[in-house]
């Protein structure tokens, strides 16, 4: 090899190395920023035979988290936009203040936070107590082991707020403050005695940094499903059956599926011309469901709309239908694998959606009607 070629090879190698290094630095910086935001908006409290932690997801978390995940998973530009939209929709960014409550009950008796709509309030800087606008119903059930659920409050421009929850301590409220506000100095702290945390005032509150260690005592508890905490790693390449709970009902399980970009061969997914629709094959509900979900994974709302029943198309426009099927994280959940339960000619499709480190289950029921000898989707 000539000296000139050797120098050129060295320069190319150095350029590639610098590019990789820069990408690594960007990923590390974005991830660190995201973790700093999460640390500032995490609060942990001990209760009576329980420990609870609350995480708020502010709008400023979106960009560093999406950027770091896009770089880590090497997403294509269209995948980045889809992930950003899904992430924002799941957390209702801009339309609500999102919180994830995790409660680990390790005593013999369960924890009862019901009625959750009354027992959890946001206390703003003026002392006004604001009730949640929506929350996951599992938080209203008796809590055994680890249970996690999302709670949404009206959006708050003033970030100087705290959260108060009844039921974690006897006859009192537990107050969660955050270092992301002026109310708390440490994100992880121990609150004062229960009788002193019934108002947003911090005049009698002392806080100190602690190391949180969950008790290891094991107790017999009923088989109540709870959401696992996920490690930070790429999306699974194989579906984890445990994500969907008990499979004694003989549900069908479908593995992860990537969108077809572009379609590599003709298939039943291709919508026939309008004038030849009468000649289309007569399909059973199971065949239609497979085609319908494949189109959903591919993001082809037009094809999905064409598979709706005549009555459904008369009730919902193409534009509104497209917004409904592309909002939220259901499509992304389908790509990671899904479960189908059939009850007659209705299918219950369940996906396991990941939001940050939490995996939640979402089920949509898809009904079918027969038109011209073929099944159509009733929306």
Can you walk through the features of this model?
By secondary structure, the chain is α+β, with helices and mostly antiparallel strands. It has two domains: 29-196; 241-378, Roll (Nuclear Transport Factor 2, Chain: A), CATH 3.10.450. The protein is built from nine helices and 14 strands. Strands 1-2-3-7-6 form a five-stranded antiparallel β-sheet. A five-stranded antiparallel β-sheet has the order 10-11-12-13-14.
Summarize the structure.
With 379 residues, the chain is of the alpha+beta class. The protein has 2 domains: 29-196; 241-378, Nuclear Transport Factor 2, Chain: A, CATH 3.10.450. It is 28% helix and 23% strand.
Beta-strand content: 15-25%
**Number of self-contained structural domains:** 2
Task: Spell the H/E element sequence.
Answer: HEEHHEHEEEEEEEHHHHHEEEE
How many helical stretches? 9
Tell me how many strands there are. Answer: 14
Work out the radius of gyration.
25 Å
Distance between the termini: 67 Å
Estimate the mean pLDDT confidence.
Answer: 75
- Structural class, from helix and strand content? alpha+beta
* Helix amount: 25-40%
The major beta sheet can be summarized as: 5 strands, antiparallel
Largest sheet: spatial strand order: 1-2-3-7-6
Which descriptor suits the 3D outline?
A: globular
Contiguous uncertain segments of 5+ residues: 16-23, 182-248, 262-279
């Amino acid at each position: 090899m000539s000296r000139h070629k050797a120098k050129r090879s060295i320069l190319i190698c150095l350029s590639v190395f610098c590019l990789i290094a820069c990408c690594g630095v960007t990923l590390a910086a974005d991830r660190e920023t995201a973790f700093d935001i999460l640390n500032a908006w995490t609060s942990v409290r001990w209760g009576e035979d329980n420990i609870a932690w609350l995480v708020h997801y502010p709008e400023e978390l979106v960009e560093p988290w999406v950027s770091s995940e896009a770089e880590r998973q090497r997403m294509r530009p269209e995948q980045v936009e889809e992930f950003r939209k899904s992430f924002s929709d799941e957390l209702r960014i801009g339309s609500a203040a999102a919180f994830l409550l995790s409660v680990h009950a390790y005593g013999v008796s369960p924890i009862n936070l019901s009625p959750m709509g009354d027992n959890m309030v946001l206390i703003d800087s003026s002392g006004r107590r604001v009730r949640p606008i929506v929350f996951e119903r599992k938080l209203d059930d008796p809590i055994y082991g680890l249970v996690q659920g999302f709670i949404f409050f009206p959006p708050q421009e003033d970030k100087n707020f705290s959260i108060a929850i009844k039921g974690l301590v006897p006859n009192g409220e537990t107050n969660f403050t955050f270092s992301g506000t002026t109310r708390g100095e440490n994100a992880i702290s121990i609150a004062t005695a229960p009788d002193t945390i019934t108002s947003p005032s911090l005049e009698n509150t002392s806080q100190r940094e602690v190391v949180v260690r969950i008790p290891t005592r094991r107790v017999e508890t009923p088989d109540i499903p709870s959401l696992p905490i996920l490690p930070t790693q790429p999306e699974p390449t194989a579906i984890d059956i445990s994500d969907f709970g008990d499979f004694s009902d003989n549900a069908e399980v479908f593995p992860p599926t990537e969108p077809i970009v572009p379609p590599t061969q003709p298939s039943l997914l291709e919508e026939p011309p309008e004038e030849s629709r009468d000649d289309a094959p007569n399909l059973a509900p199971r065949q239609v469901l497979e085609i319908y979900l494949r189109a959903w994974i591919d993001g082809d709302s037009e094809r999905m709309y064409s598979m709706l029943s005549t009555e459904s198309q008369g009730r919902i426009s193409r534009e509104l239908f497209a917004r409904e099927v592309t909002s939220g994280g259901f499509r992304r959940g389908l790509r990671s694998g899904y479960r189908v339960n059939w009850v007659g000619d209705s299918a219950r499709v369940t996906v396991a959606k990941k939001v940050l480190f939490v995996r939640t289950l979402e089920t949509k029921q898809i009904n079918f009607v027969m038109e011209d000898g073929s099944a159509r989707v009733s929306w």
